[in-house]
Amino acid sequence: MVGGGFGNIFKIPELRKRLVFTAALLAIYRVGVFVPTPGINGNALKDLFNQMQGTLFGVFNMFTGGALEHFSVFSLGIMPYISASIILQLLTVVVPHLEELKKEGEQGQKKITQYTRYGTVLLSVIQGFMIAVGFEGQTSPTGASVVFEPGLSFRLMTVITLASGTAFIMWLGEQITERGIGNGISLIIFAGIVARMPAAISNTLRLLQQDEISIFGLLIIFVLMVLVIACIIFVEQGQRRIPVQYAKRVVGRRMYGGQSTHLPLKINSAGVIPPIFASSIIMFPATIGQFARDVSWLKAISDAMRPGGIYYNLLYIAFIVFFCYFYTAVTFNPVDVAENMKKHGGFIPGIRPGKRTADYIDRVLTRITLGGAIYVSLVCVLPTILITQFNVPFYFGGTALLIVVGVAIDTIAQMESHMLTRHYEGFLKKGSIKGRR
After folding, report:
1. Pairing status of strand 346-347 against strand 248-251
2. C-alpha distances in angstroms, 312 versus 78, 121, 283, 380, 398?
3. CA–CA separation, 158 vs 152, rounded Å?
4. Longest C-alpha distance within the chain, in Å?
5. Which of 30, 322, 424, 425 has a CA positioned 20 to 30 A from the CA of residue 153?
6. Per residue in 262-300, pLDDT tens?
7. What are the beta bridge partners of residue 264?
8. What digits encode the pLDDT tens for the residues 125-152?
9. Sign of the alpha-carbon dihedral angle for 241, 243, 248, 249
């Protein structure tokens, strides 16, 4: 691929500029992961997190790219922004003002984005305060206090630091989306997960040397990883193609139309959004319960929501299925598609144009979304099964692999799009992904 089509991407000035810009901003993000929040005992915090491996904190730490275990300025990661986006999208359905803004196009979307930023800062302040209070009562296994000087000053400093860090990450993501390549928010999560993989591999090899995991078990994990990646690529490229026929039209002395095409509906049209949304919702209350261990009912919730437990898996799957349907409904409107087809003289063979066409598209979309939701659920629950049943020493597969592979496919697709729009089709003959049409 490097020697073929994609080896020529740096010959396109604008694409080269976008790639360099994206890499620079991701590098800034990774540097910020290691900038600690003032007032924290780093050694005590490291010992505490070693004790929490395999818990919900491991999942949250994965999404923050290791920022939480260092309690850096980016400890909250991008999750407050994702949570604010979920809330705004849900409110769009029930609040008339937000629904009107959504219909206004680009200007309305800018206003909704502004509200999302305000919500992100508010959630960051709330979560930052809760984490500060939670860490004040924590000690390492050796008895050392995690916070040097607990009190109001520490809480205020932590809230300001973490909220500012999240706002900065949000700005980085928006800049990557606008001036870089790919979706900025997804790429930030992607960078955090990929950055954790070398440490996970090193930890696995160390356990192999200590005979805590067998070579046969490691081989099974590797084969399973390859199969999961192949499955993700196969399904992510999968489409249900609805045939569309355009009637012939006479304009002046010329005849137009009459061609046959298709309406492509992706099996997983929501992409990596459902597991990210589901994880952010599950992690918020469980994180609070993890800190407030003295409150009995919060402790019970936290223990029940431990990854690998039946309640965690069931709730996780339920949220994934819900967000698969919700995000698909938000981003794809069968009524609008049917109206556009009718306006341009298009129709589905055997289906009457208008409402019948919209109902047919909606019925097909509902069925394939169910298949996509089941696929995403199975892939995302896999890591908890590996951890609990096979004692896999790192958070392998599932959500992480789905995000990494999904974001990689989307980013490559955008790169291809940039090359095609500048008439570089010849560069793509050897470099495009096999199976993409």
Report:
1. unpaired
2. 22, 28, 10, 12, 15
3. 10
4. 89
5. 30
6. 888 988 888 878 887 787 777 666 656 555 556 677 667
7. 241
8. 998 998 888 788 777 777 788 888 888 9
9. negative
Q: Which two tokens stand for residue 356?
A: 């019948």
Task: Return the number of other C-beta atoms located less than 10 Å from residue 100's C-beta.
Answer: 11
Return the pLDDT at 1.
41
CA distance 337 to 344: 11
Residue 71's SS3 state is: coil
Structure token pair of residue 73 = 């300025």
- Give CA separation, 60 vs 267, 312, 325, in Å: 28, 14, 24
Q: What is the pLDDT of residues 157-169, one digit of tens each?
A: 999 999 999 999 9
Q: Is the pLDDT of residue 245 over 90?
A: no
CA pair distance 13, 119, nearest whole angstrom? 37
Helix (H) or strand (E) holding 240: strand 239-246
Angle of CA points 95, 101, 102, to nearest 5°: 90
Question: With 0-12 CB in 10 A as exposed, 13-18 as middle and 19+ as buried, what is 137?
Answer: middle
Q: Was domain 213-396 assigned CATH 1.10.3370.10? A: yes
Q: Give residue limits of the domains in the chain.
A: 33-180, 213-396
Instruction: Report d(CA 389, CA 159) in Å as an integer.
Output: 39
- Of 365, 375, 280, nearest to 326 by C-alpha is 365
375 with 232: CB under 8 angstroms?
Answer: no
Residue 11 is classified by DSSP as G
Do residues 146 and 44 touch, judged by C-beta distance below 8 A? yes
Crossing angle of helices 79-94/152-179, nearest 10°? 70
Highest mean pLDDT among 21-35, 178-192, 219-233: 21-35
Smallest CA-to-CA distance from 317 within 365, 382, 258 is with 382
- For residues 357-369, b (16+ Cβ closer than 10 Å) or e, as one string? bbebbbebbeebb
Strands (DSSP E) found in 279-427: 346-347
Residue pair 337/355 in contact (Cβ under 8 Å)? The answer is no
User: DSSP string spanning 263-274?
Assistant: EEEETTTTTTHH
Query: 347 near 358, Cβ under 8 Å?
Result: no
Measured distance CA(146)–CA(221) in Å, rounded? 36
